[in-house]
């Protein structure tokens, strides 16, 4: 079956998470991604985090999945010539260096568009390609702080907290993939040729949090972190621990679902209290509601809580660990955890699900230079030229037998 992005070629000059994740998300649906690494010095994601039994970093395995690996010194004259050939036949180039790095190397957008006027260029940086902070170094945690996420996370009387995953980098990867697809769509419709997608790492979270800015500017309300409850207490919810030690998250999104929740923990009299007739009334008495929820959940085992909430069509979901996730029947039914032949490491499969042109994980992240020789031959280089470039340190190839490891 032909994959929906099977005719899209992406050149990836990015490193670490944000840029590479954007390319990885599109590779799941068939885009050919050629990831370029410096010879002898690969992406730091190869070394960050735990290693699988075969010695390869598990984060690298999933972040570089479905990608072809080219070890190339693209800053050298010979490497620039190779990069130019790649760009001429590409649809997209992804980079997430500090602003000015490509320009200083002589391959800024003007040059790239001379090589290929139809090229879509995703430029990911800490604070964007322009503005007073364009040269300020940044990592994901700084972006999380700037977006407002860190301010909204934690207990009201405690320090702001970061989430347990690289939220800024990951959401930037998602937004970068969206930006690429919008630009490709505009090109396909003949509205433009190649263009630049300029994405600052803090901006994806800023957009996805969404409500905090209109809450301040429209209603004069400044959202504040609220521990196990929601900021602003606009709807009932929280996280509680059952009698048998299971953490449960409870939530409701509107007045009717809120009253179902109140009925589950306090009966008809509690749910029918006139104070709770509207969401405004519910929000005004959230401390009382939270205490009732806490009292109900902590006094019961999880099976009892789950059964009572189900009886009232209310939501109480257990907080899953990684072990719980890989054993969960619904997740298994959806096919959300996948593996590839010959590798014991499992990864999260392509999202979203497409009915007729689904994505796939065809291989996990490969060794340095795994596809260098093949790609160079596709560009017209003979074996003698490849050997000469290897000896000069301008490219690197994997030892025989390790190309797909």
From TrEMBL:
GO terms for molecular function: transferase activity. Coiled coil: none annotated. Its EC number is 2.8.3.-. Keywords: Transferase. It is an enzyme of class 2 (transferase). Pfam families: CoA_transf_3. This is CoA transferase. It comes from Aquibium pacificus.
């Amino acid at each position: 079956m032909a994959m929906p992005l099977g005719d899209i070629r992406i050149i990836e000059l990015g490193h670490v998470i944000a840029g590479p994740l954007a390319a990885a998300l599109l590779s799941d649906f068939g885009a050919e991604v050629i990831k370029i690494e410096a010879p002898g010095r690969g992406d730091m994601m190869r070394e960050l985090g735990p290693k699988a039994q075969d010695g390869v970093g598990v984060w690298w395995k999933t972040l570089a999945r479905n990608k072809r690996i080219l070890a190339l010194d693209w800053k050298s004259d010979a490497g620039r010539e190779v990069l130019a050939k790649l760009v001429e036949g590409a649809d997209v180039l992804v980079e997430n260096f500090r602003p000015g790095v490509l320009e200083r190397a002589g391959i800024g957008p003007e040059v790239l568009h001379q090589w290929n006027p139809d090229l879509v260029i995703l430029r990911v940086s800490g604070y964007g390609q322009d503005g007073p902070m364009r040269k300020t170094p940044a990592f994901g945690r700084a972006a999380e702080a700037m977006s407002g996420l860190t301010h909204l996370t934690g207990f009201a009387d405690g320090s702001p907290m970061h989430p347990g995953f690289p939220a800024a980098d990951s959401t930037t990867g998602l937004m970068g993939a969206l930006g690429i697809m919008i630009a490709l769509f505009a090109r396909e419709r003949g509205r433009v040729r190649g263009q630049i997608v300029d994405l600052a790492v803090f901006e994806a979270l800023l957009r996805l949090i969404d409500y905090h800015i209109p809450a301040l500017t429209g209603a004069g309300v400044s959202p504040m972190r609220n521990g196990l409850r929601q900021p602003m207490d606009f709807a009932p919810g929280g996280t509680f621990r059952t009698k048998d030690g299971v953490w449960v998250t409870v939530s409701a999104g509107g007045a009717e679902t809120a009253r179902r929740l109140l009925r589950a923990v306090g009966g008809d009299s509690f749910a029918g209290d006139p104070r709770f007739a509207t969401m405004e009334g519910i929000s005004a008495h959230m401390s009382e509601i939270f205490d009732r929820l806490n009292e109900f959940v902590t006094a019961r085992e999880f099976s009892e809580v789950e059964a009572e909430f189900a009886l009232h069509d209310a939501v109480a979901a257990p907080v899953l660990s990684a072990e719980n996730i890989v054993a969960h029947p619904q997740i298994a039914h959806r096919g959300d955890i996948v593996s590839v032949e010959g590798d014991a490491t499992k990864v999260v499969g392509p999202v979203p699900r497409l009915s007729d042109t689904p994505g796939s994980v065809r291989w996990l992240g490969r060794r340095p230079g795994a596809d260098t020789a093949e790609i160079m031959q596709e560009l017209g280089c003979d074996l003698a030229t490849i050997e000469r470039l290897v000896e000069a340190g301008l490219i690197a190839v994997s030892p025989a037998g390790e190309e797909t490891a």
